[in-house]
Amino acid sequence: MAPRALTDFVAEATEILDTLDRELMALEERGSGDPDPDRLNAIFRASHSLKGLSAMFGLEGLARLSHRAEDLLDALRLGKVHLDDTLLEALSQTVDVLHAMLGEAARGEDTADVKERAEVVSAELRRLARGQAVESGDVLDAIGIDPSVRAVFTEYEEHRLRENVKKGVGLWKVRAVFGLDDFDTRLTELNRALKPLGEVVSTLPSSQPGDDASIAFDLIFGSGRDREEIQGALIEGSSLSPLGRVPVPPPSVPLPTNLPPKKAPVWDDVSVSGPALTPISSSGSGISSSPSGLTRLSGGAPVETSMRSLTNTVRVDIGRLDGLMNSIGELLLIRSNIERLAEAARQTQGTALPKLWGQELQREARSLERRLDELQKGVLEVRMVPLGQVFDKLARLMRRLVKESGKDIAFDVSGGDVELDKLIVEELSDPLMHLLRNALDHGVEQPEQRQARGKSGRATIGLVARQQGNHVIIEVKDDGNGLDEARIREVAIERGLVTRDQTEEMERRELLNLVFQPGFSTRRDVSELSGRGVGLDVVKTNLQRLSGLIDIESRRAQGTTFTLTLPLTLAIIRALMVSVSGRTYAIPLNSVLEIVQIRTDALKTIEKREVIEVRGQTLPFIRLARVFGLPEEPRVAHYVVLVGLAQQRLGLAIDDLLGQQDIVTKPLSGRLRGIPGIAGATELGDRRAVLVLDVGALMEELMRATPTSTRDSA
Amino acid sequence: MSSFADLLDRFFYRPDEEVGPYLELAPQTDRAQDPVPEEEPEEFLAFMLEGETYAVPIGAVREILKISDVTEIPRSKKNLIGLINVRGEMLPLYDVKVRLRLAETIPTVRTSKDVARSARVVILRDPEGDAGVLVDRVDGVVKLQLSRLEEAPQLGIDRNAIAGLGRRDDLLFILLDVEQALS
Q: Do A612 and A554 share a domain, yes or no?
């Protein structure tokens, strides 16, 4: 397979699997019993799409397993088997295996382990699909529906009709006559109006066609509401009449077994992206009655369930968005140049012509700016995806892990609709996974212990996201053990991360932060899930890469909360422009906590290192000019930019603040790579290159020497 | 009015001295010497460094620029003058005079005012990343026959950065080894 095609396939298949995940979870939440037909259909559709797609790409294993799943789901959809926990579990496992298989396909692997798992699951699905036999005696026979109508029902529609009869709701026929030009939208509208009141079992072309300019449909509708209420929901062009419950001579009703075997044509042999076929175009008797309407219909009018609307998303390679973003950055610069030019022309003494010219230029520059802002905002929005993409996956995994752990835990997720830059969301899943596993393994106690502490036996692990200004805050919290700082201190000393003397001086907060040191783990037994002792420092590095902050809040026996603060996007960043010894530097604003002014005589030293005190916290005071080897002048007071990344903070002394600006950072490539403390360069309006500080690297470098934070030497 | 023209000039500033024009001049300088038919002479860009004429193969030259603002990079390699912005691309600007022992110290260059009017930046192509070299003056394109190049004499100079010597009429061209000179 061409790499490009494979990439596309994996992207699409992943999307389908995500849908499967989500819908299965929703199904599970409702518990066993009567499943929501729409949900079931969505799952069925997803597995069908996956089957077709995998077969198309020659991935037989994937195709076979999704085919099995599809069979089972079809049986479920048709009411041949009932939804219960075993079935849900089997489906959930199937999705896991499908994920694994897809992963292998993406990497071009094919292991026996996954194959074996697929075999096991496949056999289970098959066993379940055979399931219980349908009960004998057809309730549909009793209500009496025009055989010509009944003959066009698909097996699935018949099943739904039967379910409605069983529920004892009224069956109605809604006749709708719509103009040929807009019948598809009108029909969708009608469906939407009816939906809240009951179930649209089938949409059939009417046996009494309308005039030449219109097309008539019969919607078979099951509803527990009374006639007035349904009548009220109807839109123009539709009318209501009762269906069935009219005694019909039994002999004229053909038994369902006499009908030709049918399958819902919607699902079979339809390409994933093609227009949806509807029962109408596939049914026998309906066609002949309104041939004129049908030619239109085959043009792809979705009637009941359309595959066309499977997803509204467009997949775009993030690299292309980066490219777009860069050109916007360039455009912004040209804009400011034009403006500068206009300003200069306007101020030129003498002839009136350039003055007028300047004014006009300026006006144009302003409208260009407006458009550019829109464009920039638009592209940024395209990059934004809901956190739910990651949260859903995590929820699934957590459910499995909780089951395996044997602990009684409620997993609370909220804020999945908060949006973040796609790149950040992708990078977040690993750190969040680590934190959640930690909460599950180390945080939450066994039920007995919880009860002994007077807490409810059921523990809660929470994953909460919310937006706060230009940042997104994500909290991972548990109401378990809390962190044991004494134990942390011992382990840190044992591992040689700090000396005992150093810990004497450390505050609780600093002690807690030791858990972010590489190689730190407080539990001796290495569980299967976590505790490999790599977790938290990986979390820290991952977050630093995303210009994020992490903080711990913990109380003994009450719980632990990790708070992650992330910027909304990394593509165009807002930067603080500062000057140091006459040079201009840009400091990414997302790592700036605050700016304070400190009088030189307020500086203190600890072991000859300068420190400042900001609201009771002692922070290292670093003169940027000194770090960069630039000439310094004695000053009475300093501007100090407090920067923080992950759990570290320090104050950078600078000469002057020049303001804020949106910048596109260009990495220093080739020969300039690896210059310490410089993330890249950006150009300002006057085409001057300005260096962008790499706050993370600077801090790593500068903190390495400070006594309170012993750095990893590895 | 003149300041406006100046602004326009700066705004639309471009590689104002592409190699192209020099190529046209080249055959004329060649006319005096009778060409050796069996060997095609190679073209070199000649430029001045502290009164000496140096040359690099024309293929290694990407463009020639007037000097604009240079941003100094703290804690970078010694021979780096700074960072220049070439139409949005951030390129390093190097000094080769110290490497060639033509000068004692790296000049501090921040704006065009810090250099002579004739000074230019020669942007060289390099697999490690294109880079600019500050030269005192660009002289033009010269054709030299590779077979007639001489080896640099032992003069106690660092010969690593010198690929050889070329002669045309009474002029001496010192061929620069680009890779070595920038390292």
A: no
